[in-house]
Design goal:
Blueprint lengths: L2 H13 L17 H17 L2 H14 L4 H13 L3 H14 L4 H13 L3 H13 L6 H13 L4 H14 L4 H13 L3 H14 L4 H14 L2 H14 L4 H8 L2
Helix pairs in contact: 1-6, 1-8, 2-3, 2-4, 3-4, 4-5, 4-6, 5-6, 6-7, 6-8, 7-8, 8-9, 9-10, 10-11, 10-12, 11-12, 12-13, 12-14
Amino acid sequence: MKSYLKIGFLAASIFVLSACGTTGPREHIAPDPKAAELNMQLGLSYLQRGDYEIAMEKLNKALKQNPNLPSAHNTIALLYQRLGEKEKAENHFKEAVSRAPEYSEAQNNYGVFLCQQGKYEDAEQRFLIAVENPLYQSAAMAYENAALCTRQIPDLDRAEAYFRRALQINPNLSKSLMGMADLSYEQGDYMQARAYVQRFSSVSPWTPQALLTAIKTESKLGNQDAVSSYKLIMRARFPDSDEMRIVNEGI
C-alpha cells in the first residue's frame, strides 16, 4: 500500500470536520438546545486548533445540554479518535449515526475510523451510506475514501470504480488521480498512468510518492529525459525520503 494512501485517510478525517447541526429524534427535552449547539461549535473550533482540553470541556458540556445532538457526538468522536481512545470514539460515532442516519459527515468520519481499524468492508458501507444523501456536498471525498479503503482489502476492481466515481464528481482530487495512476501502472497501462500523473501535477504540488510513480512509469515507457527530470525534482525537494532511497537503490 502506498504511503500517500495512508496519509489520505488522515487528511480526509480532518477534511470532514464540518459542524453539521442536524439533530435526530429527541427522547428528552434539552435544557438549552441553542447553548448545546454553540458549545458544539466552540468544541469543534478548539479541536481544529489543537486545544484538546478545552475542546473536550465544550463538547461534554454540549452533550449535557443536549444528549441527542448528533453533531456533538460526531465531533467528540473525532476528538477521542485523535487522543487514541478508540472505544470511546466508536461509541460516539455510533451515537451520531444512529440518531441521524442521513448525517453524511458522521457516516464518512465513522467510515474513516473503521478503515483505520482494518474493518474495511464495514467502512465501505459507511461511505456508501454517506453518498446516498443527495445534499451531501463531499460525496467525492466519500467515494475517494471508499477507494482508499477497498484498496487495502485489496479489492482493486472496487477501488478503481470508486476512484472513477470520485473523479467524475471532482476531476481535481489529487489522491484519486494518484490512486488511478498507481492502479494503471500495476495493470501495465503505462500510458494511462502517465496521463494520471500529468493530471495530478497540474492540480497538486509534487509528493515523493507521486514522483516515484512518475519515475517508474517513465522508466517503463523508456523516456529517460523524463526520468532524469523527475529524479532531479525528487533530489531537490525530498532528499531524505524513503522514495529517494528507493530511487538511489535502483528501480
